[in-house]
C-alpha cells in the first residue's frame, strides 16, 4: 500500500502524518490525530455524522481521502466553543434540546454553520433543506430546526464566518415570522 | 406548544421535579468531548472484523483462512472450530441464549460463528484480528468460503408453506412457537351474534433501527488479573455481562461491561450479539485490547430488525356500534434464530394490548412465530405494542366506516370509561389509570375537527383529496412485576436497582441500573434525587451504565427507566432520608417520630429552630462521633425496586394529509399529538422523546422497510436504499399533553420513549384511507410510497369498472367501498 506524508491543519494546529492512499479523512482525524468529536455513521456520505469544515466548506470526511486534504485547514466540533463559552450554535442546540444521543450533533452543527453562513436568516423550510445531508434518528429534527433558528438569532448581525465572538451583540430575534 | 427549557439555576429547589431544565449531558456532547465506543483508543489495541455470509441460506463447505492468515498485520483468524478447541481460552457455550421462553418455543442452537450452515445474510463465519481496521477488513475479505446454496424463506407465510425449505432440523414446519391469548370460543360467539363486522389483511413491515452510532465493542483482557473489561454499545450492561459470561466462559465477577456514550439504540442495542462475545474472546485469546466497530452495511445485515407481521384480523359490532369482539391471527417473522428477548415481542408485548383504549368484551389472538432467513428479529422501538396499536386503530377506523359512523364518535362510544379504572382487559392486563377522552378532545380542538370536515368536503369537490386519521393508542411500559414476568417466560427479573450515596459534604452520587443512550437520565434522575433529598440539583451526580460501579441493573428499554429506575431512586433516597432522621433525632435529642423532614431540613415538630440540614446529617453520619449506638456509620442506601404492575400511557395522535391520487404522493399537512404519560419529570425531555418517536413512526408509515429478494438477500442494505427520514420528510409536530398519574409507582410517571413511534403509523395510514375513501381504498400497506398508493387507487378503479375517478356519492355511502370486496 502506498503511503503519503501529508500535513493537516486541524483547528489551527498543524499535524504532519503518514497515511495510506485509501485512508479516509475521518479516520485520519479520529484514529491518527485523536479528534474523535467527529463521528462515523455510514461511511457512505449519506448520514452527515462525519461532517467537518475543510477550507471553510462543510465536507463529509468519510468521503474525502486524507491525501486530498493535504495542506487543508480543517475545523471540527472541538474548535467551536467550550462548556463555559459556547459558540452560538452550541448554545442553540443546548437551549432548544436539539440533541438526544448527540451522535449526529457534531456533524449537524458543522453543516448548520455552513447553512447560516450562506443564509444568516433562513426560514424553517430552508433550514430543513440545508440539513438534508445530515440524518438524526433521535430528535425528529424539529428541535434541531429550532436550534439553528436560535443560533441564527444570536449570530445576527455579526458575521457568521469566523463563528467566533458573535454573541457580543445578540441582536434580538427576527425569526422571519415562521410558526414554531 | 413548544416547551421552553430553563436553566437549572432559575428553578426553585421545590420545583425541580417537573421543570423543563436544560440537559446536563449536552455540554460534553456539544463540544466533541463525548466518548462513544469507537472513540476509545488503547495502546496496543488490535481490531477485529467478521467474515459474513453472502447468502441468506447455505451449507458451509470449506472455509479457507490461509491467505488471510498470511497477510501482513494479521494476528489471527478463527472459525467456530477454533473457538471450541481445547487450545483456546474460555469454556463457554459459544452459542447465544434466548432469554424469554414460551411453552411451545422451539429453542434452536445459535452458535456465535456458523458451524455448518449459514441461515441469514451476514451470519458470522470467521473473525479476523489484525493491526488496524483496514487490514482487518482486507483480511476478512480474503477468507475464502465455499457455500452450497439452499432455498431461502423470507416471509412467515412462505415459511409455513407445505414444501418450504426447513431452516432448523428441530423446528418442524419452521414453527418457532404457536401461542394464543384471550377466549377463542367466546370471541367466535361474539362474531356469530354480531350484526356488523370489518376485517383487514395487513403486513407490518420489517424495520431496521438505524441508531446513528453503529454497534461497537472494545474488550481489554488483563492477563495479570484475569479481568476482562468490555466497553460497548449497550442499553443494558448488566444483562450483557451475564449473557456474555456464559457465552465466552469467563466468570461474571471478572467481567465488566460498560456503556460509554451510546449513540441511540431504539431496541437494537438490548440484545446480545455474536460480535460482542467474539471481541471479548479475541481479547482473551491475544491478551490484548481488541476493538470491533460495525460498518453501516454490517448494521443492516446483523442488527435485529423489528416488526415483521402478516396479520388477518376482524372486528365485530352490534347494531348500536358497540364493539363486541376482536379476533386476530398473526404470523410473526422471528428470523433465522431466536434473539435475546425475541419471543416476548410478538406474544406478550403484542397480544396483551389488543384491547387498545376500548372496552371489548371478547378478544382472541393467535400468533405463530416463523423461522425465516432474515436476521433474528427482536425489539425495535415499541416492540409489539406498535403492531398491536396499528392493528386495533386500523380496525376501529374500518369498524366506524362499516357502521357509517364518524371515527371520533365511534371511538368515543367504545372507549374504556373513566370510571372503569383499574380496568381489566380480556387479554390479561389491568390498565392502571386513564381518561381517554381528554387527549381526544384536546386533539380535536387543535385540529378544529368540525371545520376540517367541511374543508375536506369542499376540497373533494375541487378534486383535492384531504384526509384525517386518528390514532388513540395505548402502550404498556415498565414491564413488571418480576413474578409475573417469570410466569410469562422471562428468564430475568424486571426490577431495577439503585444506590444513593451521600458524601460527607452533603453532595450526592446516585447510581442506577438503567443505561440511558440519549434520554437524558443524568438530568431527570438528578431532578428526582434532588427533590427527594431536598438538596440542590447541582449537588447530585448520576452514574449509569457500568457494571463495575452499579450494584446490579436491568437496563433501559420498553420505556422503563423513569417508571422503574426512577422509582428505585426514590426508594433509595427515602431510605437515606429515613436513616438521616434517626441521626437527626439522636443529635436533636428528640424522638424520631417527632422529626419532620421538609425541603432538606430535619426539624423537631413544633420547634422549627431545632433543625439540621441534610448536609449536616450527612457530615455527622460519616464523622460517626455522635450517632445512635447500634447504627453503622455512613449514609448510602440501595434498593431493588420491583413495580406492582406495568404502566399504561395513552394519547391521541392525528394527522391531516393530502393525497394526490394521480401520483400517489402523500403530503402531511398537520400532525397533532396529545400524549398522557402521567407526571412529567422534565417536560422538555418528554417533548423531545415524543418528537423523535413520531419521526420514527412517520418513517414506518411512509418510508422505511427492510426488503429482501427471494434468496433472502437484503435489497435495502445501505442508507441509499433504506429511507431513514431526513429533516424535510418530517412534518412540524404540534404537541400537547394531559396528565393522568399512574398509581403504580411513587412518581406517578408512565413512560414516553416509544409513544410517538407507537402512535404515528396508524394516524397517517388512517388519514390516507380517509382521503382515498372516494376511491374505495381501505388500506395501503406501509411504507406507503407513491407507487403503492397509486396502485391502490388504480386497483380499486379497475374493480369499480375501469375509471380512476371516484364514483359519485361514494364519500357519503359507507357501503360503497365494500363493493370492491375489501380485499387487495
Ligand atoms: S459517516 Fe460520513 S456521511 Fe455518514
Ligand atoms: S441526537 Fe441521536 S442521532 Fe441525532
UniProtKB/TrEMBL annotation, chain A:
CDD domains: fer2. PROSITE patterns: 2FE2S_FER_2. PANTHER family: OXIDOREDUCTASE WITH IRON-SULFUR SUBUNIT. InterPro entries: 2Fe-2S-bd (IPR002888), 2Fe-2S-bd_dom_sf (IPR036884), 2Fe-2S_ferredoxin-like_sf (IPR036010), 2Fe-2S_ferredoxin-type (IPR001041), Beta-grasp_dom_sf (IPR012675), Diverse_Oxidoreductases (IPR051452). Residues 4-80 form the 2Fe-2S ferredoxin-type domain. Residues 155-180 are annotated as: Disordered. This is (2Fe-2S)-binding protein. SUPFAM superfamilies: 2Fe-2S ferredoxin-like (SSF54292), CO dehydrogenase ISP C-domain like (SSF47741).
Automatic annotation (TrEMBL), chain B:
SUPFAM superfamilies: CO dehydrogenase molybdoprotein N-domain-like, Molybdenum cofactor-binding domain. Residues 812-824 have a biased composition (Acidic residues). Residues 786-824 are annotated as: Disordered. Keywords: Molybdenum, Oxidoreductase. InterPro entries: Ald_Oxase/Xan_DH_a/b (IPR000674), Ald_Oxase/Xan_DH_a/b_sf (IPR036856), Ald_Oxase/xanthine_DH-like (IPR016208), AldOxase/xan_DH_MoCoBD1 (IPR008274), AldOxase/xan_DH_MoCoBD2 (IPR046867), AldOxase/xan_DH_Mopterin-bd_sf (IPR037165). Residues 31-151 form the Aldehyde oxidase/xanthine dehydrogenase a/b hammerhead domain. Pfam families: Ald_Xan_dh_C (PF01315), MoCoBD_1 (PF02738), MoCoBD_2 (PF20256). One of its GO terms (molecular function) is oxidoreductase activity. The keyword Ligase does not apply. Gene3D superfamilies: Aldehyde oxidase/xanthine dehydrogenase, a/b hammerhead (3.90.1170.50), Aldehyde oxidase/xanthine dehydrogenase, molybdopterin binding domain (3.30.365.10). SMART domains: Ald_Xan_dh_C (SM01008). PANTHER family: ALDEHYDE OXIDASE 1-RELATED, XANTHINE DEHYDROGENASE. This is Xanthine dehydrogenase family protein molybdopterin-binding subunit. It comes from Haloarchaeobius litoreus.
Amino acid at each position: 500500500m502506498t503511503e503519503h506524508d501529508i500535513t493537516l491543519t486541524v483547528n489551527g494546529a498543524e499535524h504532519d502524518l503518514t497515511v495510506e492512499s485509501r485512508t479516509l479523512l475521518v479516520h485520519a482525524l479520529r484514529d491518527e490525530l485523536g479528534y474523535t468529536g467527529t463521528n462515523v455513521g455510514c461511511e457512505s456520505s449519506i448520514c452527515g455524522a462525519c461532517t467537518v469544515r475543510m477550507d471553510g466548506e462543510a465536507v463529509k470526511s468519510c468521503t474525502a481521502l486524507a491525501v486530498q486534504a493535504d495542506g487543508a485547514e480543517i475545523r471540527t466540533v472541538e474548535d467551536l466553543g467550550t462548556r463555559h463559552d459556547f459558540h452560538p450554535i452550541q448554545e442553540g442546540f443546548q437551549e432548544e434540546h436539539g440533541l438526544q444521543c448527540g451522535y449526529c450533533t457534531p456533524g449537524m452543527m458543522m453543516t448548520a454553520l455552513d447553512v447560516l453562513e450562506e443564509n444568516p436568516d433562513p426560514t424553517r423550510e430552508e433550514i430543513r433543506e440545508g440539513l438534508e445531508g445530515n440524518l438524526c434518528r433521535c430528535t425528529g429534527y424539529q428541535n434541531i430546526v429550532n436550534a439553528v433558528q436560535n443560533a441564527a438569532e444570536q449570530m445576527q448581525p455579526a458575521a457568521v464566518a469566523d463563528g467566533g465572538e458573535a454573541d457580543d451583540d445578540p441582536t434580538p430575534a427576527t425569526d422571519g415570522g415562521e410558526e414554531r | 406548544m413548544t416547551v421552553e427549557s430553563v436553566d437549572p439555576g432559575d428553578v426553585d429547589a421545590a420545583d425541580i421535579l417537573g421543570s423543563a431544565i436544560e440537559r446536563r449531558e449536552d455540554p460534553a456532547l456539544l463540544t466533541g468531548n463525548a466518548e462513544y465506543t469507537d472513540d476509545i483508543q488503547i495502546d496496543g489495541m488490535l481490531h477485529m472484523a467478521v467474515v459474513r455470509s453472502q447468502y441468506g441460506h447455505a451449507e458451509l463447505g470449506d472455509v479457507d483462512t490461509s491467505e488471510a492468515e498470511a497477510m501482513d498485520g494479521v494476528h489471527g483468524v478463527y472459525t467456530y472450530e477454533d473457538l471450541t478447541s481445547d487450545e483456546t481460552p474460555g469454556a463457554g457455550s459459544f452459542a447465544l441464549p434466548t432469554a424469554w421462553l414460551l411453552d411451545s418455543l422451539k429453542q434452536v442452537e445459535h452458535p456465535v460463528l456458523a458451524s455448518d450452515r449459514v441461515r441469514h445474510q451476514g451470519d458470522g463465519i470467521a473473525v479476523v484480528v489484525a493491526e488496524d481496521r483496514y487490514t482487518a477488513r482486507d483480511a476478512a475479505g480474503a477468507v475464502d468460503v465455499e457455500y452450497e446454496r439452499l432455498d431461502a424463506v423470507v416471509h412467515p407465510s412462505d415459511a409455513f408453506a407445505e414444501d418450504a425449505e426447513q431452516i432448523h432440523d428441530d423446528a418442524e414446519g419452521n414453527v418457532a412457537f404457536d401461542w394464543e391469548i384471550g377466549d377463542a370460543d367466546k370471541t367466535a360467539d361474539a362474531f356469530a351474534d354480531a350484526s356488523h363486522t370489518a376485517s383487514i389483511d395487513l403486513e407490518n413491515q420489517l424495520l431496521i433501527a438505524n441508531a446513528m452510532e453503529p454497534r461497537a465493542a472494545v474488550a481489554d483482557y488483563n492477563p495479570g488479573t484475569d479481568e476482562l473489561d468490555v466497553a460497548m454499545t449497550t442499553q443494558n450492561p448488566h444483562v450483557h455481562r451475564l449473557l456474555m459470561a456464559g457465552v465466552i466462559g469467563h466468570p461474571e465477577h471478572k467481567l465488566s461491561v460498560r456503556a460509554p456514550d451510546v449513540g441511540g439504540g431504539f431496541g437494537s442495542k438490548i440484545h446480545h450479539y455474536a460480535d460482542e462475545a467474539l471481541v471479548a474472546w479475541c481479547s482473551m485469546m491475544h491478551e490484548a485490547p481488541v476493538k470491533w466497530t460495525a460498518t453501516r452495511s454490517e448494521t443492516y445485515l446483523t442488527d435485529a430488525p423489528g416488526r415483521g407481521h402478516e396479520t388477518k384480523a376482524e372486528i365485530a359490532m352490534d347494531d348500536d356500534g358497540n364493539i363486541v369482539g376482536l379476533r386476530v391471527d398473526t404470523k410473526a417473522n422471528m428470523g433465522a434464530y431466536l434473539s435475546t428477548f425475541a419471543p416476548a415481542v410478538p406474544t406478550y408485548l403484542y397480544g396483551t394490548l389488543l384491547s387498545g383504549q376500548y372496552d371489548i368484551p371478547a378478544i382472541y389472538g393467535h400468533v405463530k412465530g416463523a423461522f425465516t432467513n432474515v436476521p433474528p428479529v427482536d425489539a425495535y422501538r415499541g416492540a409489539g405494542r406498535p403492531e398491536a396499536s396499528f392493528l386495533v386503530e386500523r380496525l376501529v377506523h374500518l369498524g366506524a366506516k362499516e357502521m357509517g359512523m364518524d371515527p371520533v364518535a365511534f371511538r368515543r362510544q367504545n372507549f374504556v370509561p373513566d370510571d372503569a379504572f383499574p380496568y381489566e382487559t380480556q387479554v390479561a392486563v389491568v390498565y392502571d389509570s386513564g381518561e381517554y377522552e381528554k387527549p381526544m378532545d384536546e386533539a380535536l380542538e387543535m385540529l378544529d375537527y368540525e371545520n376540517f370536515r367541511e374543508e375536506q368536503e369542499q376540497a373533494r369537490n375541487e378534486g383535492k383529496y384531504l384526509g384525517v386519521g386518528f390514532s388513540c393508542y395505548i402502550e404498556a411500559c415498565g414491564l413488571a412485576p418480576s413474578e409475573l414476568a417469570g410466569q410469562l417466560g422471562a428468564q430475568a427479573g424486571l426490577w431495577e436497582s439503585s444506590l444513593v450515596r451521600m458524601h460527607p459534604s452533603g453532595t450526592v452520587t446516585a447510581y442506577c441500573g438503567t443505561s440511558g443512550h440519549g434520554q437524558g437520565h443524568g438530568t431527570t434522575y438528578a431532578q428526582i434525587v434532588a427533590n427527594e433529598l431536598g438538596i440542590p440539583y447541582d449537588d447530585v451526580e448520576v452514574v449509569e451504565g457500568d457494571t463495575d460501579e452499579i450494584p446490579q441493573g436491568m437496563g433501559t428499554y420498553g420505556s422503563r427507566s423513569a417508571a422503574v429506575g426512577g422509582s428505585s431512586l426514590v426508594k433509595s433516597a427515602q431510605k437515606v432520608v429515613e436513616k438521616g432522621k434517626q441521626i437527626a433525632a439522636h443529635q436533636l435529642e428528640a424522638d424520631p417520630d417527632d422529626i419532620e423532614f421538609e425541603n432538606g431540613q430535619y426539624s423537631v415538630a413544633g420547634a422549627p429552630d431545632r433543625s439540621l440540614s441534610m448536609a449536616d446529617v450527612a457530615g455527622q453520619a460519616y464523622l460517626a462521633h455522635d450517632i445512635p449506638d447500634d447504627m453503622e456509620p455512613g449514609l448510602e442506601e440501595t434498593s431493588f425496586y420491583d413495580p406492582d404492575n406495568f404502566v399504561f400511557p395513552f394519547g391521541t395522535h392525528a394527522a391531516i394529509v393530502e393525497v394526490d391520487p394521480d401520483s400517489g404522493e402523500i403530503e402531511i399537512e398537520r400532525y397533532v399529538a396529545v400524549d398522557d404519560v402521567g407526571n412529567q419529570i422534565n417536560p422538555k425531555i418528554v417533548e423531545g422523546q415524543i418528537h423523535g418517536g413520531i419521526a420514527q413512526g412517520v418513517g414506518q408509515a411512509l418510508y422505511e422497510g427492510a426488503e429482501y429478494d427471494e434468496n433472502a438477500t437484503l435489497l435495502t442494505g445501505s442508507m441509499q436504499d433504506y429511507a431513514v427520514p431526513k429533516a424535510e420528510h418530517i412534518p412540524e409536530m404540534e404537541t400537547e399533553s394531559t396528565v393522568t398519574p399512574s398509581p403504580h409507582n411513587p412518581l406517578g410517571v408512565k413512560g414516553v420513549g416509544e409513544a410517538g413511534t407507537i402512535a404515528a403509523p396508524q394516524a397517517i395510514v388512517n388519514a390516507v384511507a380517509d382521503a382515498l375513501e372516494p376511491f374505495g381504498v381501505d388500506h395501503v400497506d406501509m411504507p406507503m410510497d407513491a407507487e403503492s398508493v397509486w396502485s391502490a387507487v388504480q386497483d380499486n378503479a379497475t374493480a369499480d369498472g375501469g375509471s380512476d375517478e371516484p364514483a359519485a356519492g361514494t364519500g357519503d355511502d359507507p357501503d360503497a367501498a365494500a363493493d370492491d370486496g375489501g380485499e387487495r
